[in-house]
Amino acid sequence: MNKQEEILILYSLIFTHNYLSNFSKYKNVVDDISSIFQYPEISDISYYILYNDITNVNDIKNKLKLDNKWNDEKEKIFNEIENIDSIESIKDKINHYTRKKLYQKILAQEVDELENDKIPDNTIKENIQNIDFFEDNENDLLNIKDFMKLDIPERETILYPWLQEKTITLITSQRGVGKTQFVWGLVKSITQGLQFGYWYTDKEYNTLILDGELPPEELQERIPYHNLHKNCYIKSTIFDNDRKNYQGLLWNKEYRQHIENLCKIYNIKVLVLDNKKSLTPGLDENSSQEWDIINDWLLDMRGKGYSIILITHSGKDLTKGIRGHSSIEDNTDYTIQLTDKKLDSDYCRFEYRFTKVRGHISYNYLRPNILSFKPKSENNNTYDWFIENDEDNMLEFIQNNKDSMSKGQIGKELGISNSKVTRLFKKLQ
User: Fold this and answer.
1) Which of 48, 157, 255, 368 is such that its CA lies 20 to 30 A from the CA of 394?
2) How confident is the model over 152-175, as pLDDT tens digits?
3) Strands 383-387 and 163-164
4) The domain containing residue 235 runs over which residues?
5) 146 part of a folded domain
6) Are residues 28 and 70 in the same domain?
7) Residue 417: exposure state from Cβ atoms within 10 A (0-12, 13-18, ≥19)
8) How far apart are CA 69 and CA 174, in angstroms?
9) At residue 39, what are phi and psi to the nearest 5 degrees?
10) pLDDT tens across 9-22, in order?
11) Are residues 397 and 366 in the same domain?
12) What is the full DSSP assignment across 278-306?
């Protein structure tokens, strides 16, 4: 529980305790704050206050203990409550721990609701206003020069040069092309500090694969081919019966909090969501409003430092991009589209192509290439990824840029020698 959550819960419980006579009208405020922060402890405590006719803090504590609902988090909350004896002490804590703008957004609506309920004692509204949530802070707005002077840490690059922390990556293709296998190739590189195609890392990062589609038996069959082991965690929604326990999966705010808690416990850096359709059952793919619920969570997770890889499906017409509403792609940092290039064999083979990139990254690392996942040799059950000759892609790049770039610039961008650039130019003649 971070300090922002702690002080909101503390503040809510103080009001709950001090104004029990009006609690039936105040309950909506408590529930709203609880839902915003997705923290069940406060709803648990509020329930006992409302339905057990409890009139003081110690009775709440004793009732929770009798019902085996007590834990360290509640102990911490009540210890804080017992040390609060005035609005000023609450104000001091809030000023020390929190950003006022956050509270302004949450509580401004609640003040109006309390007023409309015509509570006889207006102390609740007065006390909220006395804690100066509604005063503008002179530090809320920065001059551009001051902003540029801020010491903002650079984002860590997880897989050089494109996959960074605090990013959302979308992997898309038609069904059966190899989205999951491609992402598992990325995961092997990320968790074991290995190279994958032209991308590489020298560090190892904990990664969680949240799988909503494959039966656990098939997961066990596939994993050895990819040699996934250390620093890699997998949660099968089918094996864990998550669909029954958390109806709607990522639609369910409790499930989203559950996944975030797991990421914290296991120090996860990269979260793989496989796939959008199976992890959001019932979502209208063509509804921007419905997607906003998931999108807000993804942005929140990105802001907390996670790198999110979301797998989704393309429509039947590849030129139209992903399946569903275009807003799904609005906040992604990278979109990689896979196009089937399978030969007569059953081996996975496709072209990957970046269709969205934020920031400038050398084309040498992002140009389209064909990848295949197959045995290292005949009669060998050890599989690996192979990147195929990409001369055609280089020729395409030269054709598109020969009038605007010099041969030297083209060679630098493609990462090849000037002599090879000259040979490729001759092939275009």
Assistant:
1) 157
2) 889 999 999 999 999 999 999 998
3) unpaired
4) 157-379
5) no
6) yes
7) exposed
8) 48
9) -120, 105
10) 445 544 444 443 34
11) no
12) HHSTT--TT-HHHHHHHHHHHHHHHHTTP
